[in-house]
Amino acid sequence: MTNKSLNNKSLIKKVQISLGIYISSILVLLIIAYGMGCRDTYIAGYSLNPDTTTHNSTIFNEIVDADSSVHWYVKLYDGELWCYFHNRYEMVKRVRR
After folding, report:
1. How far is Cα 1 from Cα 77, in angstroms, rounded to an integer?
2. How far apart are CA 65 and CA 63, in angstroms?
3. pLDDT by position in tens, the chain (length 97)
């Protein structure tokens, strides 16, 4: 065997080992991603189960007023906010209990 032939075999062996490590790493990452993914009726912390909210709003802060009317807001603070349930601006004032 020549020196060139030994270098080629050594190079092929190193490539095979590197490829095996690469494929194994991808497989481990896919298994981890699968384990952390969708569970039950939750995706990234948002519930898809209609029983968890009154009107199935999962991306809004659902507020039920004293007169039982429902409001959907993205952020909650005192002032005029857009209600996505009623599609209009509404004056909001937080009441601490």
Report:
1. 79
2. 6
3. 566 666 778 888 888 888 989 999 999 988 887 776 655 555 455 555 555 555 555 688 888 887 888 888 888 888 899 998 899 999 988 777 6
Distance of CA 96 to the CA centre of its chain: 31
E strand intervals along the chain: 42-43, 46-47, 61-64, 70-73, 79-83, 88-92
The length of the chain is: 97
**Chain position carrying tokens 């039920």:** 64
**Domain range list for the chain:** 42-92
The tokens for 88 are 């209009």
Instruction: Give the predicted TM-score (pTM) of the model.
Output: 0.41
Residue 10: closest CA among 22, 18, 25, 23: 18
- Return d(Cα 71, Cα 49) in angstroms, integer: 19
Q: How far apart are CA 34 and CA 75, in angstroms?
A: 31
